């Protein structure tokens, strides 16, 4: 299926916060209570629609453990959007957010859209980080914020889609030179070519798997 | 497990079909090399049915290799490369890893000593109050505790609490004693074949029916000790695979890319044109020694070859990975970037039997003979 735009995402955050589960819920609409540890990176993709335009999301889900940081850092470059995830039941995963942001600011392009996600909000009885704290952190650092649950699917679609909407808006506003693929955006059929002329608008990749 | 006998093709036929992109001149050269060395390859091809390891003549050979006043490891490696009979696996793995002594007279005594040493280590590092641990140690232990329940989640046996506790103790003790790397995710996977093999000495039937709570604490402690020492020995030959930035794995991925380019230029070019990087799929392959990529019941057979390779394993792994990847060379050519990443991160090996695995190994062996001692092949 052809797309108007392709956006590349990266999912980051401490190990065990539910990054892979969020991705699985978004791409396959299912929840796996015990998920394999992610080693290096995993990949997922899905088509969505924004402003009546088909948009393909290609998502790199990264391993959270510190020791893989040098491998996963290379995925920041060329990402248009990032989901920064913490676990509302584990305080330390919230405390590490500043480190993750620092990493992102250093290695990603400056216009990357970052969405902060407090995952596992179905476990409110074990909550260790309040919603207000999440909101406050997001506000201080200019991020969009949502609490979500990969288990119940609450806000999962919303998180991925509103990130895409933000990126789309930035394109409309001319923030990106979309002909430059290092921004993590590719123009397909019907997309607006970049200010510098852009790519051949008809070069959409037909027949790609978009599950 | 698949023990079905298959008709054996002539080895030449099978060789050509398995490496169908090898030029015939190279093939002739390979045949000469093989005749000279009376190689493992012909053995491997004959064993492609998977029935080889339980063949009675073969068991006799193993029994002979294990008897005598001292086990000749070279001989044992040659035999083990093609698969070890399951009930001999625990003793043979301990020998191949250099954990058990080749000398049967001192073997028992030395094993007892090593097992006690492990118990000492575990009680010194693991069985202590939280207040005596540093912050780093607390974090590491917490990490390991989170990971143990997530280890091979699709094999129910590993969901038993007692098994996870043993895994936790082994990993933590290992990590403390190897501060250059510490605990790196994926090492948890590497303990599982050892756990399975060393528990098989004490439990009957298939592992689905095993219950570790039936075992005495002494037996559990011995199994843990064997797992600990065997993991240590295995990782000794791969020290820089788990240190900062994992340079050992990066190096192997670089070699893999070169090798694939050499063996199958079309696939290599297609991957490059689509923007697929080897790091995107081969990192996990190497970090977990392919445990995640094949059904768990085939892993011990794969590891027979690993342990037979000994210190040469990292080099040979590159050939195994190339062989695994090019199992699907025709399919890969039809896929675009996205399809290829998905395919390679979820290889269709769920229904594999020994047969497919033996083909991967024998082709890896063949390429190793062809390319390893001729670096010019790779340079051009």
Automatic annotation (TrEMBL), chain A:
CDD domains per the UniProt record, alphabetical: Rab2
UniProt-listed InterPro entries: P-loop_NTPase, Rab_GTPases_membrane_traffic, Small_GTP-bd, Small_GTPase
GO molecular function terms noted in the UniProt entry: GTP binding; GTPase activity
Cell compartments where the protein resides: Endoplasmic reticulum membrane; Golgi apparatus membrane
SUPFAM superfamilies linked: P-loop containing nucleoside triphosphate hydrolases
Protein's membrane topology: Lipid-anchor
PROSITE patterns associated with the record: RAB (PS51419), RAS (PS51421), RHO (PS51420)
Keywords: Golgi apparatus, GTP-binding, Lipoprotein, Membrane, Nucleotide-binding, Prenylation
Pfam family, one: Ras
GO cellular component: endoplasmic reticulum membrane; Golgi membrane
Stated family: Belongs to the small GTPase superfamily. Rab family.
Protein name: Ras-related protein RABB1c-like
Organism of provenance: Phoenix dactylifera (Date palm)
Automatic annotation (TrEMBL), chain B:
Annotated ranges, domain Rab-GAP TBC: 83-310
Region Disordered, annotated ranges: 1-22
GO molecular function, one term: GTPase activator activity
Biased composition annotated in UniProt, kind: Polar residues: 1-21
A matching Pfam family: RabGAP-TBC
PANTHER family attached to this UniProt entry: LD44506P, TBC1 DOMAIN FAMILY MEMBER GTPASE-ACTIVATING PROTEIN
UniProt name for this protein: TBC1 domain family member 22B-like isoform X3
Species this protein is from: Phoenix dactylifera
Lineage: Eukaryota, Viridiplantae, Streptophyta, Embryophyta, Tracheophyta
Gene: LOC103714753
